[in-house]
Design a protein that fits this description.
63 residues; alpha+beta; 1 helix; 22% helix
């Protein structure tokens, strides 16, 4: 999957020190990218938008 042009963002609760964070890019049509913020040139996972929304909703239910 070509993620050229992806605008990556971290959760605002991640803090300035980094830590165990992921970055999400949801600006590309038909795909949501997820990567390790400590390894931005490393591999990224990709999800369809519906699958990503379901994942985030399930996390919110557990919070």
């Amino acid at each position: 999957m070509d993620l050229t042009g992806a605008r990556w963002r971290k959760n605002s609760r991640s803090g300035a020190s980094g830590g165990n964070c992921v970055e999400v890019a949801d600006n590309l049509p038909g795909v949501v990218g997820v990567r390790d913020s400590k390894d931005p040139t490393g591999p990224a996972l990709t999800f369809g938008p519906a699958a990503w929304r379901t994942f985030v909703a399930q996390l919110a239910e557990r919070a």
